[in-house]
Amino acid sequence: MVDDPDFLPLVLIDLLGLAGIVVWHLQGRRRPMARLIVQLLFFTGMTVLLGAYGIWPHELGAREAAGLAAFVAKSARVLWWTHLAWAVIGLMHIYFALNRRPREAHLLQDLFVALAYLGVALSILGFVFGVPVGTLVATSGVVAVILGLALQNTLGDVFSGIALTLGRSYGLGDWIVLGDGTEGRVIETNWRSTNLLSGAHNVVVLPNSLLAKLSLTNLSRPDETHWISQSVRIAASQGPRDSVEALRAVLGACGEILRDPAPIVALRSVDALAIEAELQFCVANPARRTPARNEVLDRLYQACGAGGLALAPSPASLILPAPAPIRSYSSTAQPGSPATGFRPDRTA
């Protein structure tokens, strides 16, 4: 064992691998960049030692003796493949963090991590322990088909989540409105579902397969400013120009409304009783819709009380004239009489 020229470098590789694991854990999760540097340094050192002594992890160790030497050789290769997986995963985490893609961190990162560990596990089985990976993959394919049929609905949610992530229709923190009327802010996305925080401060859990089938409006893009429309009816005695100026003054006095873009007063129709107008104004985010609408209506009511405006009644509240009473037929009237109308003689 001592005479084996590969024994000493393999022991050094084992020591480097174990030291890298200890230092990696001591760094803590709050220092991802430091952990990545540690992973890369130890992985580079292990790779240099393997290359200097002509030992390649992707080749079966034919020169290894039995006993302790074989264990040291296999453990060195296992540690090298493990550090390779950690280095790749660390680079991926840093990439997503620098590109500020928090939603991909929940789905795509999990997918990449699973693929990395699966690839490393198959490599260890094939290159270190000599397991026929091809036969293993073929057998696992049959098992995968059986599991796929049993987990059809769950897999539908998983692949729908991947499709939604790649499409980037929304992200964490976006306020979305679905085709069925459901709306809220996206607070979490995972493999199975997407969670929304509604305006009533309730969490709505939507399966990804259902979410992929519904039409979606993202109120947070290109920004969170949101337009609101409010219809009002002003008495026609005010005149269109005076009504527009008074309504602009009402909107200008509201603190919940953004000044840029400026609010708009659009006349929709005019008749003998009322001038129908539409107030269009913008708020900072969808959560300010209700306070802004309440303030606009309150300011409008105050303006009407101060005499600057007069509201017109809604068309549904107009009183219709009562229908004329139906006169009853007289038993003594003659058929064809103007007072009773024509009445056929049933005795004929």
List the helices and strands and how they pair.
Layout: H1 7-27, H2 32-52, H3 68-98, H4 102-106, H5 108-128, H6 133-150, H7 152-167, E1 175-178, E2 183-189, E3 193-197, E4 203-207, H8 208-213, E5 216-218, E6 226-235, H9 240-252, E7 264-270, E8 274-283, H10 289-305
Antiparallel strand pairs: 1-2, 1-5, 2-3, 3-4, 6-8, 7-8
Helix pairs in contact: 1-2, 1-3, 2-3, 3-5, 9-10
Tell me what the structure shows:
This protein is of the alpha+beta class and 348 residues long. The chain folds into three domains: 7-129; 161-218, SH3 type barrels, CATH 2.30.30.60; 226-313, Alpha-Beta Plaits. The protein contains ten helices and eight strands. Strands 4-3-2-1-5 form a five-stranded antiparallel β-sheet. It has a three-stranded antiparallel β-sheet with strand order 6-8-7. Strand 2 (183-189) and strand 3 (193-197) form a beta hairpin. The longest helix has 31 residues, at 68-98. The protein is elongated, with a radius of gyration of 38 Å.
